[in-house]
Amino acid sequence: MKKLQLLGNITPAQFLRDYWHKKPLLIKGAIPGFKPLLTLDQLLDAAAKNHVESRLVTQVDGQWDMRHGPLAELPPRTQREWTLLVQGVNLFDERADALLREFRFLPDARLDDLMVSYATDGGGVGPHFDSYDVFLLQAQGKRRWKISAQQDLSLVEGLPLKILSNFVAEEEFVLEAGDMLYLPPQYAHDGVAEGECMTYSIGFRSPSYQELGEAFLQFMADSIDLPGRYADPDLQPAKNPAEIPREMLANITEELNKVRFDEEDVTIFFGEYMSEPKHNVFFTPPAKPLTVGRFMEAAAKRGLKLSPKSLMLYRGKHVFINGESFAVSRADKVVLDVLANERRLDGATLAKASDDVLEALYTWYADGWIELA
Ligand code: SIN
Ligand code: CO
Fold it and tell me: What structural domains does the chain harbor?
């Protein structure tokens, strides 16, 4: 793989070997001449919307406060020390989606979203740590980052946000537009705006095993098949009627031990789980959907692309899109793997699609999962 300016002129392999999960990396000029993708007004509009996740963090007389969106009213820009955070900007802005996809040297199943923060002078969310890796790209203005590998991650109690009790900075940098800082999980950091600024955070997903385990058991509940019903043809008279007979439990244990799962069950579960859109994601079906015939004509000419909201993954013959899974033939897989990896399909590849795939594509189009390119 080639060296990326985005990573400070090292290859993704070098980055993953030397920094990922291991140590911070400051990249001066990761995206030279970077200009913010959204104006402040566009960001404020987004924060006022119901389906957009946003937070307002303020510090008044040293007191931290946090409010969740939708945020119709915000402090004036002349007021110091406030921060607006808008999550999932990639879901509604194509250019933010394209920026997030610059990080596809990491698998889609790990990429989460692009969060945009706007702060007035002195604004920040306080010294804290995150449970996930993060790339912090300075989009506009300046922000001073203090970071620390400290092991003491104790938090101030009783606050509406996570603030480290004993933050001791070890390194300090001022990031300007186009600079980027990578931080591994659990790395203490504190970013303070120097004048008005905007920072973009490229965030990652790492589900907890508990969360996966609970979801997996629900998934298994829908797929287990245990025929038969409890029976006891050799039952003996009960001496202590309230006591559960040992033989009864032995029988039940034997039957429940027939619940088995293999790697394929895990594949289907995990693919469906990781491709499930977040609860606040709503697709926008086309206002006037084309008929199947017209759609196929237009798709052959213009090609198709996945909606920025669509999550599409695959493993082997299993293809996952927005929480649904399909087992597909080898020929169909060729076409669908292209759509998943490129997030678009040109007319030539589309010409190889079977009737089943074409039918699925039309349904996805009507649901707003894919669009004409
Ligand atoms: C911010 O952008 O203000 C905060 C990002 C972070 O510290 O994770
Ligand atoms: Co953070």
Answer: 12-204 (2.60.120.650), 207-224+249-259 (no CATH), 292-372 (3.40.366.30)
